[in-house]
Automatic annotation (TrEMBL):
PROSITE patterns: PROKAR_LIPOPROTEIN (PS51257). This is Small secreted protein. It comes from the Bacteria.
Length: 199
């Protein structure tokens, strides 16, 4: 039961990796205005990436404990979903605050699509938190059924996460990617997420 939920949630931090810099092979650097834009976005990433990865880790940890009291499981899931909702909302806010990437064709639409997807993910995790908070831990049968329903809902969130990843990839194409590659904060988030995935 718990393993099903954990499996459905695994990879929640993968989306953040989409917004990460790989070294650019361009000889001339991107527009300084675009670099400043990237800094606004990237500076918000590491703390939220860490929060999202920690939430996934807490869920994975309790999935291996079949003797975990329902109340403890409920509290852990609730906090994890809250952290995910907060993390994605904060990244969306950073992208929204930054505005359209300067000098980028169709930049405004790409920026708005990415923020919209991230806000949608945040809302979905907030909804999961509400559902978990409403579960009855005194009735094992009802609690188990409720967790199964939550696990089923995470499949839809997985599809949302894929859409969010694609939206971020579209946002960081071309010169945007080169500008993000110059940001140590995005590089740190990418490195941390890669290590977590490898582990």
């Amino acid at each position: 039961m718990n393993k099903k939920l954990a499996a459905a949630l695994s990879g929640g931090a993968v989306l953040v990796v989409a917004l990460s810099g790989c070294s650019s092979k361009k000889d001339s650097g991107p527009d300084p205005k675009l670099v400043a834009w990237a800094k606004t976005v990237c500076d918000a990433v590491p703390a939220q990436d860490k929060k999202i990865r920690a939430a996934n880790a807490s869920i994975a940890k309790i999935a291996t404990d079949s003797n975990l009291p329902p109340k403890t499981a409920k509290d852990t899931y609730s906090q994890a979903f809250q952290d995910m909702a907060d993390g994605y909302k904060a990244i969306a806010a950073a992208i929204g605050t930054a505005g359209a990437p300067p000098g980028v064709s169709d930049g405004a639409k790409r920026q708005q699509d990415a923020a919209k997807n991230l806000n949608g993910l945040s809302a979905s995790y907030a909804d999961l938190k509400k559902k978990v908070d409403g579960l009855d831990t005194k009735d094992q049968g009802k609690f188990a059924k409720g967790l199964h329903e939550v696990a089923d809902q995470t499949k839809e969130i997985g599809r949302q996460s894929n859409s969010g990843t694609e939206a971020l990839k579209r946002l960081e194409q071309g010169d945007v990617k080169a500008a993000i590659a110059k940001q140590p904060s995005c590089q740190v988030a990418a490195s941390a997420s890669a290590s977590a995935t490898a582990g």
